[in-house]
Design brief:
Strand content: 5-15%
CATH topology of the largest domain: Rossmann fold
Shape: elongated
Helix content: 55-70%
Number of helices: 10
Number of domains: 2
Structural class: alpha/beta
Strand order of the largest sheet: 2-1-3-6-7
Order of helices and strands: EHEHEEEHEHEHHHHHH
Largest sheet: 5 strands, parallel
Number of strands: 7
């Protein structure tokens, strides 16, 4: 995991450069501009860079796009896959400045043309700004995602409040959370475990019987005369529990999978009441025929 360093700590830089002369020059320029600003690890190939990423944590990488085992924007793509949360500054040759612009459009924080780092502080400043921009953008994205999750929960709650009169008329006189809090908490725990299994199933391709368990949960909810408001309450409470200690990436999985799970559970509950209604009609007709 890449953690934003404090100002007193040097930046851990992975320098991916196959030309020994350029690598030496980069080290010298950074040392002259900021003697204690960087701890540099050198890799001469993309394969070696991947190995270094597995061995230790880095704050950023300076990446030459022309490596012995990878060329062009494919090099950037491979590095982003190997370290999705690592800010990258691309190093290009004199004739490849347009490639640097394309690299920024493809996700690099910035680019520098090799041999044009003078004055020396330009290289140091560019690398440090790249890290600052990356962490700032990450905080902005996290805040946006948090706001989106809060809006979704509020929308669910609003939908539940709007559905309450219908629920009371069609299914029961009070919501399950108020009628039997202990039972409702048990159902929330069960739904939360299914949500965790759904995330594992999607993210890690682990086989779980989530749909079958949801169908069984819908049967129990139907037996309890639960309605749309109860499903929404169940989903909202379980999602809050799941998001409480989750990471940014896990939170996205929980939100996306939870949305689909709530719809699936609602569908199973509708099917339960449809069957119940049809069985009631058939039973009623049979009783009338028997009395004739």
């Amino acid at each position: 995991m890449n953690v934003s360093p404090t100002p007193a700590e040097p930046l851990r830089l992975l320098l991916v450069e196959d030309d020994p002369g350029h690598a030496r020059l980069t080290r010298e320029w950074l040392r002259d501009a900021d003697p204690f600003g960087f701890v540099i690890t050198h890799a001469a190939t993309l394969a070696e860079a991947r190995l270094r990423l597995k061995e230790g944590d880095f704050d950023l990488a300076a990446l030459d796009l022309g490596l012995p085992d990878s060329q062009g924007l494919a090099t950037l793509k491979e590095m982003r896959q190997a370290a999705p949360d690592l800010p990258l500054v691309v190093l290009t040759g004199h004739a490849d400045e347009s490639q640097g612009v394309a690299a920024v459009e493809a996700g690099a924080q910035d680019y520098l043309v090799k041999g044009r780092f003078e004055p020396e502080y330009l290289l140091s400043r560019t690398l440090k700004y790249a890290v600052e921009r990356h962490h700032l953008q990450r905080r902005i994205n996290e805040e946006r995602e948090q706001v989106q999750r809060q809006r979704e929960l509020l929308a669910m709650e609003q939908l539940g409040r709007n559905a309450a009169p219908v629920t009371a008329t069609l299914y029961s006189q009070t919501v399950l959370a108020d009628c039997d809090p202990v039972l409702f908490h048990e159902l929330v725990d069960r739904y939360c475990k299914l949500l965790e299994q759904a995330v594992e199933q999607q993210a890690f391709k682990v086989a779980h019987t989530v749909s079958r368990e949801l169908a069984a949960l819908a049967e129990r909810l139907g037996f309890l005369k639960a309605g749309p408001r109860d499903v929404i309450d169940l989903h909202s409470r379980a999602l809050e529990m799941a998001l409480r200690n989750s990471t940014r990436y896990a939170a996205k999985f929980y939100t996306d999978e939870g949305r689909l799970m709530a719809l699936e559970l609602m569908g199973y509950l509708v099917n339960y009441y449809r069957r119940f209604y049809r069985d009631s009609l058939q039973t009623g007709h049979a009783g009338q025929d028997g009395n004739v």
